[in-house]
Amino acid sequence: MTTADPAPDAPGLDPRRVLVFREVARAGSLSGAARTLGWTQPAVSQHLARLERDAGTALVLRGPAGVTLTEAGRGLLARADAVAAELRAAAGELAALAEARTGTVRLVAFPSAAATLVPDALAALHAERPEVRVGLEEAEPPEAVAQVLADDADLALVFGYDGPPDGLGPLAFTALYDEPVRLVVGPGAGAVRLADLADADWVGGCPRCRGHLVACCEAAGFTPRVQHSTDDYVVVQNLVARGVGVTVLPETALRAYRHDGVRVLEEPALGRRRVGLAYRPGAETVPATAALVAHLRRAASTI
What's the half-sphere exposure (Cβ side, CA atoms, 13 Å) at 243? Predict the structure, then answer.
């Protein structure tokens, strides 16, 4: 038993010719449609004839005073008006997107940036372009980069120590600012340097932050005893304030929250953290995304 070949698809109507027909119907004549379109009358007649062949029926009746619509033509005109309305709506939507009046941007940011940089940028963007929607999700850099690579996010606010973060792969990176990393100790610690804390208990942060801490301490001649681990800079400072450890924190984390019971000390040996945006090449040219990037840059200039 053999399976019959499927019947070929019925020919469709060329939407361009449908819109030409609409002009003929609105003008009431081929010559009037030609003037509106800026075409020659034979060109309009040719498109109309081809449309009627594709439709399999006459759409207009031609006469010395112009054209009148057949029943099929009246039915098609209603559809043609709907097509024209949809195209006008699409053109308006595209114009709004091109001017960044509308659009959606998916942003992923690490916690301290989400608490400091992002709110100012979103508030300024909303005041300027209230119809641009931004969805914010909080994630550490590796997870944020993975979301951009998977097309689950448009922009990722990420950081690396003394340079861009690792693992960007094909993504582009735009630096926004560099910030110092500070030594954070209890109120009775006195004037200390990193090398003075070889015997202290330490509070470590995310894996990248702990790795940076260990590298800096080893360069100072010791391996830190990381007794506690948390990504929450509020918890970190509460632990330090109660004398159960010391830590290091970047400037934005201390801007987001500063406990009265800790002392923050400059320590050049801790280096700096580079904060920036990771995105797929070309994403920065999408108007809504470009508008958000501009406001993130402005907010970063105050740090």
Answer: 3
